[in-house]
Write a structure and sequence with these properties.
The protein is α+β, with helices and mostly antiparallel strands. The protein has one domain. The protein has helices at about 5-20, 110-120, 150-155, and strands at about 30, 35-40, 45-50, 60-65, 70, 80-85, 85-90, 95, 100-105, 125-130, 135-140. The strands form three sheets. A five-stranded antiparallel sheet has the order 1-2-3-4-5, with helices on one face. The protein has a four-stranded antiparallel sheet with strand order 7-6-10-11, with helices on one face. Strand 1 (about 30) and strand 2 form a beta hairpin. The chain is globular, with a radius of gyration of 15 Å. Mean pLDDT is about 85; it is low at about 10-20.
Length: about 160
């Protein structure tokens, strides 16, 4: 296995193992290989944001919404909406060189949408997931765990406009 594939494999191993240990509806965070990760689960649905904080100048951020063992964000030809405080967020999707789905933040509109989304996530009391117009799941972060998101706006800056 080449070095880049090894790093990606290690990163995703970290992502999937970290989620299994989290308490229900409690935000967790971790850092590895230049990625800052924020995750929450309630046992039925899980939500993960992986932010390219220092991995590279070109890698986009990633999200994962797992419901019944399926990553709803990764599904092509289906619409995922994330509802927070009455606002629905949808994302332009891309894929990195390994085929992993990511959020496009390298355009002005993508960056603006991402910033608003991250700000909403940082204070959300409930995050709902709608898949093809039907509610698929939700998480209800416990207020005390929002402290884990204290630096999310900085670590999840969009690519557009980064210095």
């Amino acid at each position: 296995m080449n070095n880049k594939v090894s790093k990606i494999f290690a990163y995703f191993t970290f992502l999937f193992s970290a989620q299994a240990l989290a308490a229900p509806n409690i935000w967790d965070s971790g850092f590895g290989q230049g990625w800052q990760e924020y995750s929450i689960s309630n046992g039925k649905a899980s939500f993960r944001i992986a932010c390219n904080e220092a991995f590279s100048n070109t890698a986009e951020h990633m999200i994962e919404v797992m419901v019944n063992g399926t990553d709803l964000f990764a599904q092509k030809d289906h619409k995922l909406e994330i509802l927070i405080s009455g606002t629905a967020y949808t994302f332009d999707k891309g894929a990195n060189q390994y085929g992993v789905p990511n959020v496009i933040t390298s355009s002005q509109s993508g960056a603006d949408n991402w910033k608003a989304f991250i700000k909403a996530v940082s204070a959300a009391a409930k995050i709902e997931f709608y898949y093809d117009g039907k509610k698929a799941g939700e998480v209800k972060p416990k207020k005390g765990s929002l402290k884990k998101l204290e630096y999310i706006e900085e670590s999840c800056r969009p690519l557009f406009g980064r210095n």
